[in-house]
Design brief:
It is a multi-pass membrane protein. It holds the Pfam family DctM. The complex comprises the extracytoplasmic solute receptor protein and the two transmembrane proteins. The protein is mainly alpha-helical. The N and C termini lie far apart (about 55 Å). It has two domains: about 1-60 and about 285-305, no CATH class; about 65-270 and about 315-435, no CATH class. It is built from 21 helices and no strands. It is globular. The protein is about 75% helix and about 0% strand. α2 packs parallel to α14 (about 270-305) and α7 (about 120-135) packs antiparallel against α8.
Length: about 425
């Protein structure tokens, strides 16, 4: 007796969730379920062929080279203390604002995201730098940790972004266009988070007292510390925008740029390079395995025809783009409470993206949307990876206090997302101009 392919797909998805819930690494869970599913559908020979074809396809994908290069660039920025310079400069200029030190952490996270491409990395880097200063001026522990945890999420929206590269590869969307699309929303969210902190601390000064006073000469002298990050960001984004090189080539240029700047500053040593290479290689291998597993399980789901059936059913409901976005937003909020970012992306994109295309939603705009939903997942209880990183950095602050302080940032991000939906040009204007030539 043969089993209906749709039923096989449903069983496989429940098995995948069970494996992830048991703590099996997401890459191995995807590969296991995808391979077993292919075996059940078309037998051992077909499953083996698909694994080999996916290995060959991913191994020859030029775009994937960007992932280890951007990770290496972020490692070098961290190991050569360029991130510390960035925070020090921002802190000197705005530390006297209400909640100025927390605002400085948001701006520094945005700057670090512009040269790293990760969220957890930004939190782990900035947390040990920012928390001592905020403790020194008696900042509220929950607000201090929450501002860094939420600011770290900007790292996956402001280019270069590892998650945008993954989304672009999975959906065959232009990675360069995605990078351009993330700039204005990233700056928009950065400004919104900063304004939220200032308003909260204006009405409740005890949350974030003003920081240390610096002379104008000290402020001006610190501006030179901004130059490395600004130069690298302009080199990458300007090169892509101007059509001088593609995102993968930009990654190589970025690594060279950071290396040369660190070398000139006397901060590039062989131990630093070795540690940076090891860190980038470790994370890259994890991401490559996840991507391979994602392709295998996507192929399995295509064979079951469940994605086509689901798309036809959702389109038949006639919800329209805004109705679909409301449904997707609620779905991603719930999934963010149960899954990490990679699992959430891989499980949903095979189902959600065909619906997006069928209803006429811009794939580039949707890429920014889904990245923002991933940002929210990084601060949503009980998973909230960024929150737990901050809890380790600041053990004196209870996890519950951080999650409580995250709530205003969560709703501000949702409000920004609603603005992007009503005015999609905020997202699509820059890529449409960059790639219209």
């Amino acid at each position: 007796m043969s089993i209906d392919p749709h039923m096989i797909a449903v069983i496989a998805l429940f098995a995948l969730l069970a494996l992830i819930g048991l703590g099996i690494p997401i890459a191995f869970a995807l590969l296991t379920v995808g391979t077993v599913g292919l075996l059940a559908i078309n037998g051992a020979i077909y499953a083996e062929a698909q694994l080999l074809l996916n290995l060959m396809d991913q191994g020859t994908n030029f775009s994937l080279i960007a992932i280890p290069l951007y990770l290496l660039m972020g490692q070098l920025v961290y190991r050569t203390r360029l991130a510390e310079d960035l925070y020090d400069c921002v802190y000197r200029w705005i530390g006297r604002l209400p909640g100025g030190l927390a605002v400085a952490s948001v701006l520094a996270a945005a700057g670090f995201g512009a040269v790293s491409g990760g969220s957890a990395t930004a939190v782990a880097t900035l947390g040990p730098m920012c928390m001592p200063e905020m403790r020194k001026f008696d900042y509220d522990g929950g607000l201090s940790a929450a501002s860094i945890a939420c600011a770290g999420t900007l790292g996956i929206l402001i280019p270069p972004s590892i998650f945008m590269i993954a989304y672009g590869i999975w959906t065959e969307t232009s990675i360069g266009a995605l990078f351009m699309a993330g700039i204005i929303p990233g700056l928009f969210l950065c400004a919104a988070f900063s304004l939220l902190i200032v308003v909260m601390c204006w009405f409740r000064p005890s949350l974030g007292p003003v920081g240390e006073r610096f002379t104008l000469a000290e402020k001006l002298s610190s501006l030179i510390k901004l130059l490395p990050v600004i130069l690298i960001f302009l080199l990458i984004v300007g090169g892509i925008y101007g059509g001088i090189f593609d995102p993968t080539e930009a990654a190589a240029i970025g690594v060279m740029g950071v290396g040369l700047i660190a070398l000139v500053m006397g901060r590039l040593t062989f131990p630093t390079i070795r540690i940076a290479l090891r860190g980038a290689a470790h994370t890259s291998m994890m991401i490559f395995l996840i991507l391979l597993g994602g392709h295998v399980i996507s192929r399995f789901l295509v064979l079951t025809d469940i994605t086509t059936s689901l798309v036809d059913w959702i389109v038949s409901l006639g919800l329209g783009p805004y109705g679909l976005l409301v449904v997707f937003t609620l779905m991603y909020i719930v999934l963010g409470m149960m899954l990490d970012i990679w699992a959430m992306l891989i499980l949903t994109i095979p189902f959600v993206f065909p619906v997006v295309v069928a209803t006429g939603i811009d794939p580039v705009w949707f890429g920014v949307y889904i990245i923002i939903m991933c940002e929210l997942a990084a601060i949503t209880p009980p998973i909230g990876l960024n929150v737990y990183i901050m809890a380790r950095v600041a053990p004196e602050v209870q996890v519950f206090s951080i999650f409580k302080a995250v709530v205003p940032f969560f709703f501000v991000a949702l409000a920004c997302l609603a603005i992007f939906a009503v005015f999609p040009g905020i997202v699509t204007w820059l890529p449409s101009h960059a790639f219209a030539r």
